[in-house]
């Protein structure tokens, strides 16, 4: 859910502006509206220093920078020069200038020893591919074109390469020694960011009374109003407080329980809700976990994810901050994987050591519909997709009524009634709860009522003919989009199936290698299992992260009309 925010307007003497901002920074709860003006010279200088320090820290952390990369490029070029000079060896360049010497290189197969009878030819070296030789004096009539004199002798080229390599080693030592300065540079970056934040706050103020009065605007969570007002009352300022509204576009603070909070970074990847919008994180937490587990589809991989999550606990940076989420996704994968009957590529539904009561809980095998056969897991994926989209449409209708009122939301209500009501009645009818006749007339009634909202009253007070045309256009978009949206959920079945089949394939290959000799064949057997399942786990995790995000970001957010254009809460601190 979205935390209620309070809107503050601060009025103070311009001479007290810096002291006021310093005190607000110490309190650390007020998000002062920052300036949207073009950055001044001071801002640009701070930003430039932050970027330079950040770039330097990244270079030191990875042990490389543009200068080192330039040296490595020079080393590669020097190594090529060594290879070019190697066939010619060492020679006296001054002595060569006293003679008319031309250099040649030809394929070893095309070299003709009889050339020595007609020209003063001296063979220098040869390898499997080429023959290198020179001709002293007149080379007129020779069938090959000469090549340029070598730029370096072998000794010169090797000396140049050695000096560059020495420079690389010395500079790498400089970079390694510089790593001890990383904490200080990171602290400097934090200080500069705070300074920049404070400066943009100063720029955002409005002035009155010929510059003697300064006005600031800010937001803070309403739950802390009492403590904040107590601090403000002790300051020599005048302020006004009121509840923030959507028109104020206040910054967003999400407030969720510990389970849902783990998934807030995923919501932020798409965009935070605006103040009068719903927080989709609760929906995202449930369905991302379910979809991830279905895409993984293997209880054994779930156990590995739990182990990885707890192994990251207590570490810093990277995925370590998300260790709880990783372990939770692993736990969900274990549960769903058992229902899908897969454990490290082993089909649990056909194993004699698996209890019968557990096999009965597994969603495996096919269902017969007339002459056609369909996988139970595929039907489950499509069923979950239909439910997910119906939930999105219900959410859209509820929030449309809340934001725009019942009269201005009849189109959304009409589509929700038609789709959700139709799916519900069809499901009840197919289960035999109501008769076929009752199902038919109920669907007709639902379609009739929905048509009024979709085609006649989709925009209250507008020309009915225009409303009908708009409704027809919506019908085209809905008909062409919904089918594709539902079919997108087949990926849940397909990814889970492909991961299970690949794991099973590695098991089969390992069994083939193991054979019947236990003395040494266990080593390649275990190696294939380790490498194969590690690779499969990585591929499954990639697909299980990307595709569930897509199903939530595209299918659910689109059908629920979620925009995600909120501003992040960044208090001055």
Detailed description of the structure:
With 573 residues, the chain is of the alpha+beta class. It has four domains: 121 residues; 96 residues, no CATH class; 177 residues, no CATH class; 110 residues, no CATH class. 59% of the residues lie in helices and 11% in strands. The chain contains 19 helices and twelve strands. Strands 1, 2, 6, 7 and 8 form a five-stranded antiparallel beta sheet that branches. It has a three-stranded antiparallel beta sheet with strand order 3-5-4, with no helix packed on it. Strand 9 and strand 10 form a beta hairpin. Helix 10 packs across helix 12, helix 14 runs parallel beside helix 19 and helix 18 packs antiparallel against helix 19. The protein is extended, with a radius of gyration of 36 Å.
Rough shape?
Answer: extended
Alpha-carbon distance between the termini?
24 Å
Mean pLDDT over the residues: 85
Main sheet, how many strands, which sense, barrel?
5 strands, antiparallel
Strand-residue fraction? 5-15%
Number of helices: 19
Residues in helices, as a percent range: 55-70%
- What's the gyration radius in Å? 36 Å
How many domains comprise the coordinates? 4
- Spans of at least 5 consecutive residues with low confidence: none
Find the structural class using helix and strand composition: alpha+beta
Number of strands: 12
């Amino acid at each position: 859910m979205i935390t209620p925010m309070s809107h503050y307007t601060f009025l103070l003497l311009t001479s007290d502006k810096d002291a006021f901002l310093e005190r607000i920074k110490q309190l650390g709860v007020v998000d002062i509206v920052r300036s949207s003006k073009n950055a001044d010279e001071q801002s640009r200088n701070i930003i430039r220093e932050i970027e330079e320090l950040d770039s330097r820290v990244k270079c030191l952390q990875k042990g490389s920078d543009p200068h080192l990369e330039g040296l490595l490029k020079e080393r590669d070029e020097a190594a090529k020069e060594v290879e070019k000079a190697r066939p010619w060896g060492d020679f006296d360049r001054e002595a060569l200038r006293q003679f008319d010497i031309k250099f040649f290189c030809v394929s070893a197969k095309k070299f003709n020893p009889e050339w020595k009878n007609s020209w003063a030819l001296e063979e220098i070296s040869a390898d499997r591919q080429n023959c290198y030789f020179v001709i002293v004096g007149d080379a007129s009539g020779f069938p090959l074109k000469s090549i340029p004199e070598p730029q370096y002798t072998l000794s010169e080229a090797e000396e140049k390469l050695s000096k560059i390599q020495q420079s690389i080693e010395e500079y790498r030592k400089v970079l390694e020694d510089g790593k001890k300065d990383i904490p200080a540079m990171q602290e400097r970056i934090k200080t500069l960011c705070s300074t920049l934040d404070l400066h943009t706050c100063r720029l955002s103020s409005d002035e009155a009374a010929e510059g003697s009065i300064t006005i600031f605007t800010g937001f803070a969570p309403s739950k802390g109003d009492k403590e904040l007002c107590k601090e403000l009352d002790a300051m020599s300022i005048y302020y006004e407080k009121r509840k923030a509204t959507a028109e104020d576009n206040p910054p967003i603070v999400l407030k969720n329980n510990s389970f849902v909070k783990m998934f807030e970074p995923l919501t932020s990847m798409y965009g935070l809700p605006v103040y009068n919008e719903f927080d989709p994180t609760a929906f995202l937490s449930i369905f991302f976990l379910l979809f991830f587990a279905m895409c993984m589809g293997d209880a054994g991989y779930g156990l590995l994810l739990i182990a990885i999550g707890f192994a990251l606990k207590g570490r810093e940076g990277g995925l370590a901050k998300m260790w709880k989420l990783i372990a939770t996704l692993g736990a969900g994968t274990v549960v769903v994987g058992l229902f899908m009957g897969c454990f490290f590529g082993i089909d649990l539904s056909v194993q004699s050591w698996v209890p019968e009561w557990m096999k009965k809980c597994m969603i495996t095998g096919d269902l017969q519909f007339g002459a056609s056969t369909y996988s139970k897991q595929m039907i489950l994926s499509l069923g979950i997709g239909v439910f997910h989209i119906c939930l999105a449409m219900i959410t859209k209708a509820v929030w449309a009524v809340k934001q725009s009122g019942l009269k201005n939301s009849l189109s959304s209500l009409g589509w929700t009634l038609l789709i959700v009501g139709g799916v519900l009645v069809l499901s009840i009818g197919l289960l035999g709860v109501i008769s076929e006749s009752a199902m038919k007339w109920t669907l007709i009634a639902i379609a009739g009522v929905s048509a009024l909202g979709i085609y006649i009253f989709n925009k209250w007070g507008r020309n009915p003919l225009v409303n009908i045309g708009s409704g027809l256009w919506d019908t085209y978009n809905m008909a062409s989009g919904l089918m594709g949206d539902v079919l997108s959920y087949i990926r849940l079945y397909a990814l889970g199936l492909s991961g299970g089949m690949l794991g099973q394939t590695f098991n089969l290959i390992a069994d083939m290698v193991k054979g019947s000799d236990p003395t040494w064949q266990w080593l390649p057997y275990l190696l294939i299992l380790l490498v194969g399942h590690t690779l499969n786990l990585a591929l499954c995790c990639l697909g299980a992260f990307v595709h569930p995000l897509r199903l939530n970001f595209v299918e659910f957010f689109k059908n629920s009309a979620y925009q995600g254009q909120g501003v992040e809460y960044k208090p001055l601190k």
